[in-house]
Design brief:
Two copies of one chain form a homodimer.
Chain A lengths: L8 H15 L6 H8 L3 H8 L2 H26 L4 H15 E2 L2 E2 L3 H9 L5 H25 L4 H21 L5 H11 L4
Antiparallel strand pairs in A: 1-2
Helix pairs in contact in A: 1-2, 1-4, 4-5, 4-7, 6-7, 7-8, 8-9
The structure holds a DNA duplex (30 and 30 nucleotides).
Chain lengths: 188, 188
DNA sequence: ACCTAAACTAAGCAAGTGCTTAGTATTAAT
DNA sequence: ATTAATACTAAGCACTTGCTTAGTTTAGGT
């Protein structure tokens, strides 16, 4: 009865996500999204409601991409703390695009919107962070008989460290990042 | 011969800085600056040239404020690594405004503008970072006979950690931040 | 072939962006 | 009191913002 869409929502969202990842939320305009996604504003609004809708889908897309490219590997590994360390190195590669580090989209968003972030956005962020922290805890439990309290603290430590790595990767060179990662895991 | 200014540039810049600190660069409009600084756009442009000019002066103002409120204390301290640890705790207080953590203006800027930041802005950032790293090195040298290479690595480690703290302070609670700081200094 | 529901195009909306400028007020030296 | 240099006010510039809408095209069920 009705005409078919000329685009696949998952495909155009991936392109939107890349744009948000490079530019941030506020600095990315709907006109830029139009060009990058290759569809008209009408299509954007009819598929995703508004700019925030596009962003929320982009966050979900980022979660999927991160899961596929680096998180699944962490999940599968039985190498304990070393698996987490490897995840840190994997993250740097993951966030790099032609020698430009884009950081982590989630961290970028926290830093840009902070506590004034909309509730739906916030829930995506918390969702993502909880997932990663859970895996860190899982891997920390593999190594030795640390008590739950120590593991909890170390997981918090690693979460903050990862955010530092995200920001720092935008300015620091590889050597400095290596220094950071090596030192981070020295005490664990 | 000529009329006097009704405002003091240092005073209005401090207000601009607070706004940029809360909102970021791009999201802060000249109209918002007008209101916050309490002067007309004409005055803003005649005193600082353009929006970027206001921002650069704001960065300098931030540097001064940070120096006065937390960096000088670090500089004076002879407590080695503990002085740096105290600096981390001081930073959290420094960045807090009515229970809202604004992070570090420098880190916020790096995260927002990344490598595409204008050269003058970049130079303020590098200037600031170099200063802090220098102090970290100074304090690390106090403690024990570490070789230069180790100290350099540890300074890099601390610089990235501090950026993590800046971002994380926007979302994490005090307990998690404490876990992070305590763990950070455990290996040093 | 006709109809209808949805997808498209492109123009347009009010409001906001960084910045400028014409006109007026204030200062201090003459 | 006149002059000239600067500071101020407020209106306005062209452009961009997120979003809408009128008009057209495309699809499948009848």
């Amino acid at each position: 009865m009705a005409r078919k869409k000329k685009y696949i929502e998952e495909e155009v969202i991936e392109k939107a996500m890349e744009l948000f990842w490079r530019n941030g939320y506020e600095t990315t305009s709907v006109r830029m999204l139009e060009k990058e996604m290759g569809i008209n504003q009408f299509s954007i609004y009819s598929s995703f409601g508004n700019k925030k809708g596009v962003f929320i889908e982009s966050l979900a897309c980022y979660r999927g991409k991160a899961k596929h490219e680096i998180i699944n590997k962490l999940q599968k590994s039985t190498d304990g703390i070393n698996a987490i360390k490897q995840y840190f190195y994997d993250f740097i590669k993951f966030s790099k695009e032609n020698r430009l580090n884009k950081g982590c989209l989630i961290t970028n968003t926290v830093n840009e919107l902070g506590e004034k972030a909309d509730q739906e956005i916030m829930s995506e962020i918390v969702n993502f962070a909880t997932n990663v922290r859970g895996l860190f805890i899982e891997k920390l439990e593999l190594n030795n008989k640390k008590n739950t309290e120590t593991i909890r603290k170390q997981a918090n430590y690693l979460m903050v460290s990862l955010q530092g790595l995200s920001v720092a990767s935008k300015m620091f060179d590889q050597e400095q990042l290596d220094d950071f990662i090596e030192n981070t895991f020295e005490s664990l």
